[in-house]
Known about the structure:
Elements: H1 2-46, E1 49-54, E2 59-62, H2 66-70, H3 74-77, H4 89-103, E3 108-116, E4 122-133, E5 147-156, H5 158-195, H6 198-227, E6 235-238, H7 240-253, E7 258-262, E8 268-271, H8 275-288, E9 295-302, E10 306-312, H9 320-328, H10 341-351, E11 355-361, E12 364-372
Parallel strand pairs: 7-9
Antiparallel strand pairs: 1-2, 1-5, 3-4, 4-5, 6-8, 9-10, 10-12, 11-12
Helix pairs in contact: 5-6, 6-10, 7-8, 8-10
Amino acid sequence: xxxxxxxxxxxxxxxxxxxxxxxxxxxxxxxxxxxxxxxxxxxxxxxxxxxxxxxxxxxxxxxxxxxxxxxxxxxxxxxxxxxxxxxxxxxxxxxxxxxxxxxxxxxxxxxxxxxxxxxxxxxxxxxxxxxxxxxxxxxxxxxxxxxxxxxxxxxxxxxxxxxxxxxxxxxxxxxxxxxxxxxxxxxxxxxxxxxxxxxxxxxxxxxxxxxxxxxxxxxxxxxxxxxxxxxxxxxxxxxxxxxxxxxxxxxxxxxxxxxxxxxxxxxxxxxxxxxxxxxxxxxxxxxxxxxxxxxxxxxxxxxxxxxxxxxxxxxxxxxxxxxxxxxxxxxxxxxxxxxxxxxxxxxxxxxxxxxxxxxxxxxxxxxxxxxxxxx
Length: 375
């Protein structure tokens, strides 16, 4: 009898332990569901939909919102290769070029990537990809061997692409027409300048100079359009030769200017070749708007934080309204600059993860470019 009673106690203990485990599992499931809902809410707020793909490039998950955007239900996509959403072979090759670095442990962001809807039309998306690691491996022990797939977070970029395409066309047409018309004005103003004398010749010169300024404006607008979507793509570059070429060109175009340079023989910064455009805009602006004659000083220093390039002139300074535009990076009907040179410098420097600062005083203006240190 005692043996039966002991067995009964053991069996009751087993039941109690099993019930405890069942309750713990149920509580854990509720907690995971709450976390998943929070996660889905964040994803829905930040992205249009989410995919997961395995190492073979097949969909293992698609969020429900994919149906509204691409016309496929999640069930239709799961198990299918990514090529089912890609409009042509070139896009398939591009997709794998972007996917492979993620399987090497990198994160990736691709803009304006085309996807084909179930109905046929192509839409454009911004896609952020991150690796998915095997859950059983602790985060601090993970290697690329533990990557089992990729998560792709997708946002609709079609309307932005259409809007930017329209803006680009308008800009090209306006620049083309402006160059043609200003060329005619400059030509006739030059003829009048040579034939007239006194106050009339001065007026012709004013017309010609104003037309030249507008032509410079169209050229700056073109360069802004070229650089506006550039990603950093930074790498260590010795900018000393770049600076030397820029200063040599300045001395050729502005022989009346006094140009001094104080810089180390080697100056390595994390940057890009397009920095040369920004440097030219800065020194050219200093020579054009400096004193009479212009005095341009270029100082380059290397600090623990990076590289600092300071260009000083002896001119009257940058108009306050121009500085307001640069500080706010927004133009309004009441706040706008007459030129785009400073905008171009700002755009390039910030695209290089750098900083731009302008200071004006009684003795002239200093434009300072700060570039990040080499990694």
